[in-house]
Amino acid sequence: MSVARIAVLILAVLAAAAAAWLASSFVGTDVQQVQAPEPQIVTDEVLVAARDLQVGAKVTPGDMRWQTWPTEALASGYVVKNQTPDAMIAMQGALVRSAMMQGEPITNGKVIDTTSAGFMAARLGKGMRAVSVAISPETGAGGFILPGDRVDVIVTHESRNDTGRDSIVVSDTVLANVRVLAIDQAFGETNDDTGEKIAVGKTATLELTPKQAETLARSQAMGDLWLSLRSLEDTATGGPVDTGVLGKNRNTQARRGSAVTVVRYGVQSLELPRTGQ
Hints:
Layout: H1 3-34, E1 43-49, E2 64-70, H2 87-91, E3 95-96, E4 111-112, H3 119-123, E5 129-134, E6 150-160, E7 167-183, E8 203-208, H4 210-222, E9 224-229, E10 241-242, H5 245-248, E11 260-264, E12 267-271
Antiparallel strand pairs: 1-2, 3-4, 5-8, 5-11, 6-7, 6-9, 7-8, 7-10, 11-12
């Protein structure tokens, strides 16, 4: 073998060795980069819903759990365990004010403390009043009217003709699209004991404006009240509406002795409506 060929072979071996060394250096660098420790995320524990919670539901221990949450993502109003470790005990028995999905943080603004005197007032819209009316399975749509539904209020009464001698029984819708706040003392759709979506109660608490509350009181003095359940598709027209029917029925005889139940700050009271208005 000539000297030239031997020299070329030696150079080739040296070049291969250099290439192998460079390749191993790059691989080692990549491994070191992959194995570099990631920055640690600081976390806290936040109180969240353990399952979907509907409006009006009573919060139980099984409805809540502590969830690990990034500290930098904490928002105002979140219930943090290291700040309020007994929050789960304090939340028991509260009513859900805003529907919550599973895993959603529970805040004080989303629940109502039923032990406070103003828990019903907290459910009312600004400027609205809570007024209760007596109902039965016959006058309350067979018990299928639930808290959160919308109803029309119908009054059945006697109306005299212009001579004042003859009278007929008529029915008029005096209020429309009224929100039902509660049936008796139930504020949710589902019965806590049976799980059924039915509410056969003796009173229905309605959300009305002050003027509409007066209309309801006059209507109860005139005759019998009936609640007509509205379709879900008919409730997107805004708040309750006074139909103005009472102002047109001048020949209606007011029935004395009727009373309307008014709820103020969670306390019920009976008031006799004025007649002749």
